[in-house]
């Protein structure tokens, strides 16, 4: 019996020692987890602070962008108004100057077979052109200017219409 009691006591001592080791390991694990929890809370607070700061900055940027957009819309409106004013001024000036630069009609030759400018005979090789401007005279190739889609016009009408060309 004493051997059995000694064996039971040794087993109990061994179990106690193992229980204390497990308890010590669990305490260390719990301390480590509490430290991690503390760090996680600090990180969470930093992230929450950063999020609030980012939201505040986003709201400020949005307000600035809204103000800038309103300023640009006002500028566009002012530019449109100015454009309309300029168009009205241009129309008024055009109406005032419409009759000023009326070129004098050149005399139409009595002989329709002659150029109104150089009085050259229109033949097979010298083509006759009608001036597409005011005088409506008949001119040869040499005495006319090509106006593209508008046909040809005599040099006098062209110079009256485009004084910088002289």
TrEMBL record:
Residues 16-89 form a coiled coil. Keywords: Coiled coil. Residues 9-95 form the RUFY4-like domain. This is RUFY4 protein. The lineage of its organism: Eukaryota, Metazoa, Chordata, Craniata, Vertebrata. The gene is Rufy4_1.
């Amino acid at each position: 019996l004493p051997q059995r009691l000694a064996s039971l006591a040794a087993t109990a001592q061994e179990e106690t020692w193992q229980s204390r080791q497990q308890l010590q390991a669990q305490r260390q694990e719990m301390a480590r987890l509490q430290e991690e929890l503390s760090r996680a809370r600090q990180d969470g607070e930093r992230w929450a602070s950063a999020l609030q700061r980012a939201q505040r900055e986003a709201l400020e940027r949005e307000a600035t962008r809204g103000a800038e957009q309103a300023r640009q819309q006002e500028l566009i409106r002012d530019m449109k108004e100015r454009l309309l004013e300029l168009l009205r001024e241009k129309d008024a000036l055009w109406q005032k100057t419409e009759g000023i630069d009326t070129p004098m009609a050149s005399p139409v030759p009595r002989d329709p077979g002659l150029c109104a400018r150089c009085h050259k005979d229109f033949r097979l090789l010298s083509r006759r052109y009608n001036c597409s401007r005011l005088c409506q005279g008949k001119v040869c190739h040499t005495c006319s200017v090509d106006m593209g889609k508008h046909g040809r016009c005599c040099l006098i009408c062209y110079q009256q219409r485009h004084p910088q060309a002289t």
